[in-house]
Amino acid sequence: MTQPPNIDYQAVERELCRRSFSHFIRRAWPHIIPDRYIHGWHVDAMAEHFEAVESGQINRLLINVPPGTSKSTITGIMYPAWLWGPKGQPHHKFIGAAHEQGLAVRDSRMMRELVTSDWYQSLWPIAMTGDQNEKLYFENAERGFRQACAVSSMTGRRGHTIAWDDPLSPEKAHSEAHRNTALRVLKETLPTRLSDPENSAIIVVMQRLHESDPSGYILASELGYEHLCLPMEFDPSKRCVTSIGWSDPRTVADELLFPERFPRTVVDRDKAAMGEYATAGQFQQRPSPIGGGIFKDEWWQYYKVLPKIKYRAIYADTAQKTKEQNDYSVFQCWGMGEDGRIYLLDMVRGKWEAPELLVIAKAFWDKHKAEPKIMGTLRQFKVEDKASGTGLIQQLKQKKVPVVGIPRSIDKVSRAMDAAPHVQAGNVVLPEDSEWLSDILNEATSFPNAAHDDTLDPLMDAVSDMLIEKQRPSYAELL
Which helix (H) or strand (E) holds 133? Predict the structure, then answer.
């Protein structure tokens, strides 16, 4: 009788883990996480791209994926442990960053637990150095290390891999100051922390929260990032295809990403609780709902021929700075039609410093002041009274322009909610053939998550001034 061969099961396990990061994730999971492992195909997709980073095929990787899909575990715990052991790179230096240090420390601690577990040590006996076995930073005997930090404190050490997990929290994503900090880190800090500027890797893993979040900047710029996008519900028109030959395997519209953990009942329940904007960003990785959120695409009305205009006014929103990431300055001329609707007649948009801003503003006023009387009286020039707008108001008064400052007492979202019913009612009409129409519509669709919203500020001022205020009864009418 033939005896069964002696099988070295540990050697088989080592080889399977070396060949497949996904296999390693499944085998390592129970040694650090008590919850039962639930596998989804998205894990294989992420693992395939991490393998491409390890092989040098990719050295800039952006992954957009919904919360609850194990992105932090895979990125900050499993991947560096896989490099040290199965891939034979105990010398690898890994820096794991997050928007706050506590999250980075959590993943660093769990990686250390995995590497020092009996299972891991029996397969890849990597010794840890006794004086560098801390939760923020620990080394192994081959001088590889794992550092945890908030990105704001990423100084000193350089790594072969820098992984940035969730650069922004949902609570801070709508803060321009926090977004600018994250973008500065992306552009100025991460590239300077690499051991090998040519070959070392940067990995950004996050859910989308705003058009101007780090993902938005990466996608709008030519920074060499491979983009793996995994929306919760499949959109055939936006199927993700990457350079390594991977494509989203789903075929049916709205097919779920991870039904084993997030079945349809759970997804629908969470979508109802989250609302359109959070769902569009965090679930669909598209920070504006299809068809718009506050301002629905189908609400807008368009004209080719104007009705008789009773009167006109100019509304302006001026930017504080002219740097690339800052908003534009915008001047819009609106007219009140005899039909009770308001019509956008003209617009200029640009980035101008104070002297040029005055020249553009005065020229815009003079242009429309010279319009024939059939267009109605040009009544006023209204400017948001803050930052550069305050200075412009003073300068226009010196030029004898009837300018009025617009104070701000409520936030943009509240102003948009006030304006939206008038847009929905068809009382806000845009020029059908204008070269700048797409600027307005793109910002309206994505508001309040748009990279810019400068065209909407004067639009909302016009609605407030010409429609909302007009409808309020006078004091005499209330008596």
Answer: strand 128-133
For strands 329-337 and 309-317, give the pairing.
antiparallel
Tokens, residue 101: 């240090």
For the chain (479 residues), the mean pLDDT of every run of 10, in chain order, is: 74 96 97 92 98 97 96 96 98 91 87 96 92 78 90 76 90 80 88 92 93 88 93 94 97 96 95 81 80 79 94 89 65 95 95 88 93 86 85 90 85 81 91 91 80 87 87 37
Pick the CATH number of 19-283 from 3.30.450, 3.10.450, 2.60.40, 3.40.50: 3.40.50
What one-character DSSP code corresponds to residue 451? S
| Numbered ranges of CATH 3.30.420.280 in the chain | 297-475
Enumerate the CATH 3.40.50 domain ranges in the chain, comma separated.
Answer: 19-283
Q: What pLDDT, on the 0 to 100 scale, is given for residue 292? A: 62
Please give the distance of CA 205 from its chain centroid, rounded to a whole number.
12
Collapsing DSSP to helix, strand or coil, 241 comes out as: strand
Give the pLDDT score at 1: 53
Region of 107 please: left (phi>0), alpha (psi -120 to 50) or beta: alpha
3-state secondary structure of 218: helix
**Is domain 297-475 in CATH 2.60.40.1470, yes or no?**
no
| 7 burial type by CB count under 10 A (0-12 exposed, 13-18 middle, 19+ buried) | exposed
Q: Output the CA angle 417-67-95, nearest 5 degrees.
A: 120
Cβ-contact 162, 193 below 8 angstroms: yes
Q: What is the CA radius of gyration of the chain?
A: 28
- Percent helix, strand and coil across the chain, each to the nearest 5: 40, 20, 40
pTM for this entry: 0.70
Phi first, then psi, for residue 245 (nearest 5°) are 95, 10
> What is the residue type of 402?
P
| Cβ–Cβ < 8 Å for 77, 205 | no
